[in-house]
Amino acid sequence: MRDIAVLAFLIGCIGVTLWRPWLGVLCLAVFSYLNPHTYAWGFITTFPVYQILVIFAFLALLTAKDRQPIPKDWRIYAFYMLWFYFLLTTLNALVPWAAWPKLIEVSKIYVPLILTLLLINTREKLYYLIITIAGSFGLVAVKGGIWAIMTGFNHRVYGPPGTQFYENNAFALATMMTIPLLILWRRETRSRWVNYGLMAAIPLCFASALSSWSRGGLLTLGVLLVVLIWDSKRKYLVIPLMIIGIYLALGQLPDEWFGRMHTIQTYEEDASAMGRIEVWKDGFQYALDHPWLGAGFDGWIHVTQRDWHSSYIEIMAEHGFVAFALWFSLLVGTLISLTRLNIITRRFPEMAWVKNYTTMLRASLIAYAAGTVFLGLSYWDIFYHLVFISVLVKKFAQDEMAERGLIKNMQQAQYPENAMSQPGNRL
Fold first, then answer.
1. What is the C-alpha separation between 357 and 350, in angstroms, rounded?
2. Per-residue confidence band for 413, with pLDDT thresholds at 50, 70 and 90
3. How far, rounded to the nearest angstrom, does the alpha carbon of residue 345 sit from its chain's CA centroid?
4. If 0-12 CB within 10 Å is exposed, 13-18 middle and 19+ buried, where does residue 152 land?
5. Residue range 319-323: average pLDDT?
6. DSSP letters of 67-127?
7. Does 170 score more than 50 pLDDT?
8. Among the four 118, 282, 381, 417, which has the fewest Cβ within 10 Å?
9. What is the mean predicted confidence (pLDDT) over 136-159?
10. Using CA atoms, how far apart are residues 389 and 29, in angstroms rounded to an integer?
11. Which of these, 377, 215, 366, lies nearest to 308 by C-alpha position?
12. DSSP states of 203-225 as a string?
């Protein structure tokens, strides 16, 4: 029965994709982050539902009348350069039998993301895409949070089986990246009932992350809480609520959970933690010895026989310092871009929406930056999706400012200090 329901949903998504191609981007987000087919039991679990939907999305793109040119943003060029560099490292990979399938897998992740740049051409469509991503994974996290509370946090929460979010550490990180998007949804929604629902969902997501029993997730959670408090509009209300929530959560967590988290302080005595440090040292040393092309995809098979356990080491060791610089620039450059855009637009009350988007997208990316210190997730689609979404936020903000007459050209949007000296310019 579940298989038939998922198949019917897929057919419906194909229909709306052909009717309104931009809705196909939302449908792809649902199958990428909610993964409804993984909750079935029969043939649909191995059916290439995502690939089929991608094909129809690109077919719909051919007839789409409202598609836009790919924005001229340096991050787009860096993304394509990184992708091309992956091809070069694969051609010289130490483990070609593992590298070529991995390149194909990564390319399958990257290709559909281009549809976001082409078909999400208004702020309204972007808003729907963000809440689709937030709602898709938010449902999984809320389900995990309810189960965690019902079981007294005595068992680990995992993501959808057979997905890149299944492992408990990855699930914890994905949950924490989703929380800022849910907060953004709550700030932007006009529905009172949706607002109430999100107010209930966000604490459940925190509970779900705690019940993952992820030590790296706990450290990332601490970073995320600091960022959320910093960006909060009502710190006097948020801080007491967080303190109460932490107090209540600590009272429910079992002793075994505290014992596992205590190993963060005594990592020298923990074989797993010390093993990761050794892997990081080996990976970094290999990158120093092979700075240009690294070991290729899944090079850990040759270098250490263990997973890298860090996205930073993963990129560096597998593809060299050039690829690392491109990947790292996408992460840090997007954080800087979001911060600058927030500073530029906060002068104008009519651009208040930009603050909500930039601060919460930044919080989500900071969670990724912190969490992937301990996890090899440098090819995660959610990261690149948020980078592309940030590109579109910048584009729509600049277009709106120009339309409203708040700036005279895009140069002033990027360098407001140059506009301050011009008479009659509000910047």
1. 14
2. low
3. 24
4. exposed
5. 97
6. --PPP--HHHHHHHHHHHHHHHHHHT-SSHHHHHHHHHHHHHHHHHHHHHHHH--SHHHHH
7. yes
8. 417
9. 90
10. 13
11. 377
12. HHHHHHHHTTT-HHHHHHHHHHH
Whose structure tokens read 């710190």? 235
List the Cα angle 141/298/117 in 5-degree steps.
Answer: 55
Residue 39's SS3 state is: helix
- Separation CA 383–CA 212 (nearest Å): 21
Write b or e for each residue in 348-386: b if 16 or more Cβ atoms lie within 10 A of its Cβ, otherwise e: beebebbbbbbbbbbbbbbbbbbbbbbbbbbbbbbbbbb
> How many whole angstroms separate alpha carbon 127 and alpha carbon 378?
25
Smallest CA-to-CA distance from 289 within 328, 325, 317, 327 is with: 317
Distance set, CA 337 to CA 2, 112, 250 (Å): 43, 24, 37
- DSSP letters spanning 238-289: HHHHHHHHHHHHHHHS-HHHHHHHHTTTTGGG-HHHHHHHHHHHHHHHHHHH
Helices (H), 290-310: 300-303
Count of residues for the chain?
427
Could you give the C-alpha distances from 398 to 191, 253, 412, 414, in angstroms and in order?
28, 47, 9, 9
**Inter-helix orientation angle 21-29/123-150, to 10°:** 20
Instruction: Identify whether the C-beta of residue 285 lies closer than 8 Å to the C-beta of residue 306.
Output: no
Pull the structure tokens for residue 172: 């914890």
CA distance 393 to 132: 16
C-alpha 420/C-alpha 427 separation (Å) is 5
Distance of CA 407 to the CA centre of its chain: 31
User: Secondary structure of the chain: what % helix, strand, coil (to 5)?
Assistant: 75, 0, 25
Compute the C-alpha angle 151/156/162, nearest 5°. 125
d(CA 20, CA 358) in angstroms, rounded, equals: 28
Q: Which has more confidence, 258 or 390?
A: 390
Return the amino acid letter for 334. T
Find tokens 């897929």 and name the residue: 10
Instruction: Report how far residue 113's alpha carbon sits from residue 62's, in angstroms, rounded to the nearest whole number.
Output: 16
The amino acid at 79: F
361: which 2 tokens? Answer: 């997208």
pTM of the model: 0.92
Cβ contact 283:315 at 8 Å: no
Residues 196 and 184: their CA atoms lie apart, in Å, by 14
- Is residue 402 a contact partner of residue 350, using CB atoms and an 8 Å limit? no
